[in-house]
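Good morning,

Both structures are done.
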Amino acid sequence: MKRLFAVLIAVMLVFTIAGCSNTETSQGSGESNGEAGSSLAGRYVGYSWQGEVNGVELKDADQYIETLLELDDDGTILDAEMRFFVKMDGYWTMRQSGNAYVDVDFSVDPTPAVPGENYQPGNSMFTIYTADMMSFYAVAVDEDQTVAAVLVDPIARYQFEMKFAQDFDFSTPVGELTIGNGLSVPTVRTSSTGLLKPDDWEALADNNFLNISPWSHVINDRGVLENITEASSVKEFLEALGVEFEADAPQPLAVKYAYYGNGGWDGNYRAIESYLIGKDAKELTSLVDWSNPRYAAAINDNNQFGVDTASGATRTVQNSMDTISGATVRISREATSFQRALVQAGILDESDVIVGRF
């Protein structure tokens, strides 16, 4: 237990240092003007924050997104950085930091959570502390070759845990790891805002983590599980997560964690940054095409998106298949932060900014 607390304190110190250093960012060195013939060269910053539509000021927010842009004379984006800050237990950390503490108790047999309004977590093999559970997975192999794996489902937002003894038939297809047969167990809800909010597991008994929903494609469209399908063997699935086999037997492995798909928050933000570099900031004035009728209809008179939409109207800007500005996650709040950096550069006016749904 003392060792656990020591590790947690060390992780928290990393979070604290990251938060302190990153919130002291320069407000930009360029001359803010968008007049023809004037230089746009400089470094500019913009923010979006939780609670803005309810009157919360940036200094009082517990979550905010920061976009930093470096422009050349003509407004070409030379460099871009996007950071998502979250205050946890009084300490600032970046959601996309990738820091996590993960421990596995192989003596635990995972049991399902009780979903719905009276939610109760089930028994989990994993102890996980991290600011980023989106697209998270972890795997470990004990000395007796027992395998423990967990994957956070992006649709229902539950930890799906799998425990395989050494004598398990690892040629079993992934499609047979269903909720109903107990080979894939939804143990802990990581967020109450999932697209799918099951009241029980009976309706999903025949499903596995690759077919919970049509949107489950985000798990294996790209990233470490790109070539894994329901027809793939459990061995192939575990190898993709980092497990090594000898003569079809899994070899001991200390706990390993990472992010599937686009790579969690860090992967999505790096994708946005890559998309932006080289673009003309005078032409690309938003990460989102707000002229799209689906989105335009959800913008109110205060330029706020998704706040007081009519019944049935969209409240989310997201394209998990083809991406928007490189990202598979919802992106309206990131678009706000980007536009505010352009305001500081003098390319946009604050009245042009669409305040996304945080």
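Second structure follows.
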Amino acid sequence: MAEFRFPIEILRNVLKPLVLMANDANIFFDPNRGLRLKLVCFIGYVDAAVFFRKESLANFQCPNRTSSSIDILEFGRALHRLGTNGLVALHFDTEELVLRLRTVRFGPLTPERLLMEPTEERCTEMALMEERSEFMQIDESKFEYDLLIGIPSSQFRQILEDVGELTHFVTMYVKETAIWFKAKDKVFYLCKELGHFVTVGPTFKKPVVLEFALYRITSFQLASQLSNMVWICWSLDAPPLLNFPVGSLGNIHMYSRFYPEIKKMRFVNQSRKEAAPASPLH
């Protein structure tokens, strides 16, 4: 069993990029950490996970760790039936496999209001499912990232719009002072001195190279609308990660699951990798 209250509008907006990627997701509750939602996109080379911290879940009750699977499309429909404003109280019965939802009436949103007894306005419920063992194939707890690249979300969406018109794959080259995105014969540059991005981590003599499949570009764009900054995380021992912080509530993570296969597809007809394009910023 687990229950909590959460703003309906934020929850619906978090679901928007996810319902375009998969039908079902596993949902995990931890009494010490909060909520995790994991899903596998079987077409599109991306896995996703959503984390809501315990502190962001009002009236969070979860005696023990528990989990189940949920139809995220039906979950979105259930939230739609409740309206767009206010709080929703969610009760996950993981024994009977039922999710019960009800709206909570409130005035000005204050901590005191969140703790008040609710006045029910609308109620609905939906079925849950047993946890699915194949969700998800990536175990994010094992990953540590060496380099974090922060790009303002508006800048990130513009890059996606530019490269998405050209190709389904984009190659990203990162140096200390510049980033360039190569899509077919087009190159798009970002300059650190102009505030286009920030980095956290060590510097590298040679450009760090990342590749992303853009089959889920709409999900990337929707997720970025929830963040002020999009973080691209890189490590030799982990798949590239797009991290979309949702304010102080939590994060949406999207992983490039088939990264080795993407590289193989991109360079299968080449005898060697192409060199990074020359940067005009050096």
